[in-house]
Amino acid sequence: MTVADPPLRKRSVAAWLSNQPYLMLSLMSLFWAGNIVLGRYVAGHVPPFTLTFCRWAGTCLVLAPFAWPYLMREWPVIRKNLPLLLLLAFTGFAFNNALSYWGLQHTQALNALLIQSSGPLFVALWSLVLFGVRLSWMQAAGILVSLLGVLVIILRGDLAALAAIRVNAGDISFAAALFVFGLYSALMPKRPRINPLSLIAFTTGCGALMLIPLVGWEVSIGETLTFDTLTVLTLIFVVIFPSTLAYLFFNRGIELIGPNRAAPFFHLVPVFGSVMAIVLLGEKPELFHLVGYVLVLAGIFTASRRGSARTPASRP
Predict the structure, then answer these.
(1) Burial of 217: CB neighbours in 10 Å, binned 0-12, 13-18, 19+
(2) Interval 65-73 mean pLDDT
(3) Scanning 31, 226, 230, 238, which has the fewest C-beta atoms within 10 Å of its C-beta?
(4) Structural domain contains residue 171
(5) Partner residues linked to 133 by β-bridges
(6) Rounded to two decimals, what is the model's pTM?
(7) Residue 117 placed within a domain
(8) What is the model's pLDDT at position 7?
(9) Cα–Cα distance measured from residue 204 to residue 191, given in angstroms and rounded to the nearest whole number
């Protein structure tokens, strides 16, 4: 074994992972599930806009040393596509996450997970409006089946529980965040062809800058960040997993299979959330968990199959 073997092996693993869209999108959902659970857990302890700013500023700083050579080489392309990249920064990072973290301060995790299930519908809506890309029958059927599975899990097999859910300002904010993120997802196939590290580092950096006025307002009303153990661990988690890794995986997944086939993986978020509750909180597994998991996985398999893609409506 030579000294060059370990880096070579790491590169081969990374190259293999970068061509596994279903695995990357599944890991993305796992990380985002943890983000929702944690975001609700630290509600009232970490100000939402400051948390969002630290999340994206931290992500940019983590990626900057690796992305810098690409940023320098690709700067002419970045400058040429600056309006689109700023829109991606606003919809995918600044506005979307500010709304979702604020919403988690004012709603319950159950409501947030239910609203999260509408993500694929927003992606499909924006794809249709902007580019004429319609859901195929298989995609629509898959989304509905996986959505049913989500409802079975979250409502614990009791549809009557829907009547007990009350809509509040936090719910509206979280739904608005998903609506905006749907635009980001639909626009991703139109992004400039630059290195993924360049794309994430630049857009997260711009997103963090866009959040400075909101952070200033938050500080002015007395909501400041307290650097205790919980805060530090929260920032480390959100920077590494639901930010850096999840967005790299999500963007690459869209590049490989398209937004409408990638969006049904949003339904894995509440699945992983329920698994976390069983493993970490000691909840007892029930039959409705198994039924819900089967429905979600069946729906995702149906919607994300290669043959489920459909050409834009404007094309013959």
Answers:
(1) exposed
(2) 96
(3) 226
(4) yes
(5) 312
(6) 0.83
(7) yes
(8) 56
(9) 15
Q: Is residue 165 part of a domain?
A: yes
Is pLDDT above 80 for 266?
A: yes
Three-state secondary structure call for residue 312:
strand
Helix (H, G, I), strand (E, B) or coil at 133: strand
User: For 236-259, what is each residue's pLDDT tens digit?
Assistant: 999 999 999 999 999 999 999 988
Nearest to 261 by CA among 92, 129, 124: 124
Report how far residue 276's alpha carbon sits from residue 173's, in angstroms, rounded to the nearest whole number: 24
By residue range, what is the domain housing residue 86? 26-308
The answer to whether the beta carbons of residues 68 and 189 sit under 8 Å apart is no
Is 16 a member of any domain? no
Counted domains in the chain: 1
Rounded Cα distance between 184 and 93, Å, is 9
Q: Would you call 106 helix, strand, or coil by DSSP? A: coil
Chain mean position to CA 180: 12
Task: Report the pLDDT value the prediction gives residue 164, as an integer from 0 to 100.
Answer: 67
CB atoms within 10 A of CB 4: 8
Chain segment 146-163, per-residue pLDDT in tens: 888 877 877 777 767 766
Pull the structure tokens for residue 47: 């100000």
